[in-house]
Design a protein that fits this description.
single chain; about 425 residues; alpha/beta; Urease, subunit C, domain 1; TIM Barrel; 2 domains; five-stranded mixed β-sheet
Length: about 425
Amino acid sequence: MFRNETNYVLTNGVLLDGTEKMTPQTGRDIYIEGGRIGAVADAAARREGYEVVDLGGQYVLPGLINLHVHLPASGKPKKKASDPKKLVKLITANALTRRIGVKLCEGYAKTELLSGVTTIRTVGGVADFDTIIRDLAAQGKILSPRVVASNMAVSVPGGHMAGSLAYEAKTPEEAAAYVERIAAEKPDLIKLMITGGVLDAEVVGEPGVLRMQPALVKAACDKSHALGMKVAAHVESPEGVRVALENGVDSIEHGAQPDAAITALYKEKGTFQVATLSPALPYALFDRSVSHATYEQQENGKVVFDGIIAMARENLANGIPVGLGTDTGCPYITHYDMWRELCYFVKYCGVTPAFALHTATLLNARLAGIDGETGSIEAGKAADLIVCAKDPLADLSALRTLSMVIKGGYRVEHPAPKKLPEVERELDKFL
């Protein structure tokens, strides 16, 4: 069982607590009791009866939270695109292939954890695999982050991920029925695929074509909200953003070039954006001989990349929450690179490293609705922590190599997720 069975105290570390105005704290001990933070106290008043874990002056901070994950895919680049519909049909063909599929997702979840991500929010997966992984993790049966799960998404015929990670709704009634079908698996949120993406754009300069009509969006949102679930929406065009905001979605996943009307809608509806800089970057900035993208895909990748950045900047300037996720599973976007998303947030959106860390911890927890449980180093919260040798406030790449990951009090010393050298080599050029 991957659960903490002992009480221990982390001492001699530099504490970064995850709050917006965090500053390094020394001389503070963190007491771990039954998998939770029992106290954060003055080291001079050490309590007896705890195993002492000396951090040797290293930095301890909340575990990272990745708000946009697709568990079934590795992110390993391919020269030739595969057929996702055929792959999903194969993996769900019978009980044996399903078990293999769940085991595959378990391995990717473990990679997320070993990289310092102690909570993931999935936004489109195969069948009910996400909730299976969530429940196994909650029971301590697998080594995994906490999972906020969505299972299958809802799309339309010809829409984004239709027939693979998403059901195909033809009418508002079907959209609502698919929400009910997904809800029966007890996920934590519903995902809609409102627009297309880079790969299915038909014209250069026009990615994110609106695929799901407003009536379907509204029906799905209304049913989700009636069942007590929030709605996340894949959107990559201004038209799609307006339709999503007007019809009830709770989060815009990705984004597009904003305008005054869109900003006003964000404020009126209380919606937030999950900026995903990682997946568009290879299409937009890689040489096509490396990305294997077509000219059209590269140009549309640039439109999406620039749009996400522009929307994040505008939202930040207007006090609209912006969370972070990697869109893990896209080409070159692995399950161990959440730290890169923080670097991109600083580089392209102009935030400070401290704000990026706050976003990837406490703010992401708040946006996922779990800030009472995790996201900061506070008494009473789950002991979800990471330890690194160097100061991430000085250089976020310090998060690339960790000396310890703690999930619910369970310690993993010197975590070493398996990495893809070709991915590391290409992405390092854009830090």
